[in-house]
Amino acid sequence: MTYHYQIYFRRRRGATGIPFELAQTEFKAIFSPFGLHIKHGHIPKHRIWVTLKLSPKEIPQHAQNLAYTEAILSQRIEPYSGKEINPIGRGGWYTGWIRQDDKQIYQEEVFVQDIQNRRSESPDQHAFPVYINNQLIHIQGHHVGRALSAMDTRYLFNIADLPPNARILDPFAGFGSIIREGHRRNITIFASDIDPILSLGLQGLAPQSYALADARSLPYKSQTFDAIITEPPFDAKRQQAIVEALPNLMCILKPKGKLVLLIAQNMLAPIQSQCTLHHLMLTQISIIPRDHGLRCPVLVIQSLTK
Ligand SMILES: C[S@@+](CC[C@H](N)C(=O)[O-])C[C@H]1O[C@@H](n2cnc3c(N)ncnc32)[C@H](O)[C@@H]1O
After folding, report:
1. Residues above pLDDT 90, as percent of the chain
2. Are 192 and 228 in contact (CB under 8 A)?
3. Could you tell me the distance, in angstroms and rounded to a whole number, from the CA of residue 194 to the centre of ligand 1?
4. How far is the CA of 236 from the centre of ligand 1 (A)?
5. 113, 147, 178 — which closes off a domain?
6. Nearest to 287 by CA among 86, 14, 17
7. How far is it, in rounded angstroms, from Cα 278 to Cα 261?
8. Measuring CA to CA, which of 14, 18, 140, 150 is 20 to 30 A from 251?
9. What residue numbers bound the domain in which 148 lies?
10. Segment 205-237, tens digit of pLDDT
11. Phi-psi region of 134 (alpha: psi -120 to 50; beta: other; left: phi over 0)
């Protein structure tokens, strides 16, 4: 049985826009396994109309991890009866009966993004302890330049298509956004970072699974992880180290494992060359726009030979 839905994508996060394509890619990643058919879309309105082999009751459990979708409305479509119709305005959309040409459609909210809850996941809301010059300070927010937004973190997990009970590593753990998202999904994340000033905070977030380590020489056996999800440094001075780390990261992935990377634009060409050299399959999934006009490619890298 197929069911009709109307999907409202988010347009903005913070000061930055969310491209329609990015939101649609995430939606497809979650719902394609459930017979997703896109009937049509309206790019300026950030909306798509779809059918799914999921009933309205089954939608929330799959939608709960979406980052860029604002609402999902179920639609029951009938020929127009001729009776007066009074839709209920809900801010961005209508519920109840609406009329469309020769049809009447009964719309119900089956998922609405909990904005308060999502805001509570933001790095601004979590103090991260670091030692600087032997002084303990608590850093909060994006301004430190290392913390990934909670929405973008959700997105990286969503496109990774993780198996149940996946074992995941973030080898450039920074302020721990990826560990936090793992906690939210009840997944234990292994985490490492080269910077000792982060040890206290990362140990607190991942007490059993944190290591102070260079991504080029990690303390893990080959074929340990189902996925590596990470945001390497954007600093051009670190480019060489990231490129060198790539073969080692692939080695500790299981045969069908995926390396999901959110990178700086200038990292793309060196990573592409390294993938060609080591027979790795690189797919560019999307671009995430970020503050200061940054356009960050999201890549999935898999082994061709394992
Ligand atoms: C962009 S930040 C990661 C941010 C993280 N995703 C978050 O949300 O907090 C990059 C991190 O890579 C670390 N790093 C730089 N070079 C490294 C290397 N060779 N091996 C491991 N970590 C490294 C830095 O210390 C920094 O914390």
Report:
1. 82
2. no
3. 7
4. 13
5. 113
6. 17
7. 17
8. 150
9. 120-303
10. 999 999 999 999 999 999 999 999 999 999 999
11. left
